[in-house]
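Could you help me review a protein record that somebody else here produced? My question to you is simply how this chain folds and whether the tokens agree. Thanks in advance; the entry in question is below:
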Amino acid sequence: MTRIPVMPPSFASLTYGQAPAQPIDDERLRMDFWADLGELIGAVAACVTLIFVVRATRHSGQAVQDAQRMLQLEGDRDERAVALEERRQASQLAFWPVRGEVDGTFQWGIELLNSSDAPVFSVELRRPEGKSGNGTLIPEIRAAAKILPPGRYFFSERKHWPVHVEPQRVLEPIPGNTDYMPSVRFNDSDGREWSRGSSGRLEQLAG
């Protein structure tokens, strides 16, 4: 039996034209692994950061809108408070038709009440001549006063200025007949000009 000689591996590799096997570099593999892992972690962190930035931007925009809405509400509330304060004194001036004894005689006219704690100025009361629903003549009233302190006042066609009415005097209101109602213009103690019509509506006039 013929024996075939066995050649060493290195010799066989050289014989068949193959390069010798290189040993695996474990250190390089570990470095590449950690480098790839670091890049992956960095990418994930960047995505998470982007998500937080988007959410923060969205919440920030909502917060700005909420703040603007609150400022608008506060501004509206302040304006209403100012308007109410401006109307405070003017709203305390009222009037209605009455009848009763004034200056020793029985008269029909208008009672005006300034229930505020300050006088009003440049008061003008007007009621045109007309007729009531049952045909009764309603005489014209044109009266004025430069100043009316707090209190009760009586206006009639007999005088062009008001008559002060004592607190204890009783004047009978005439309800249910707006034909006897006048209109009044006056200035409050801060100089604002107002008008209250025969319907009772209070309006501030342009100054």
Notes: The chain has two helices and twelve strands. The longest helix spans residues 26-88. Helices lie at 9-15, 26-88.
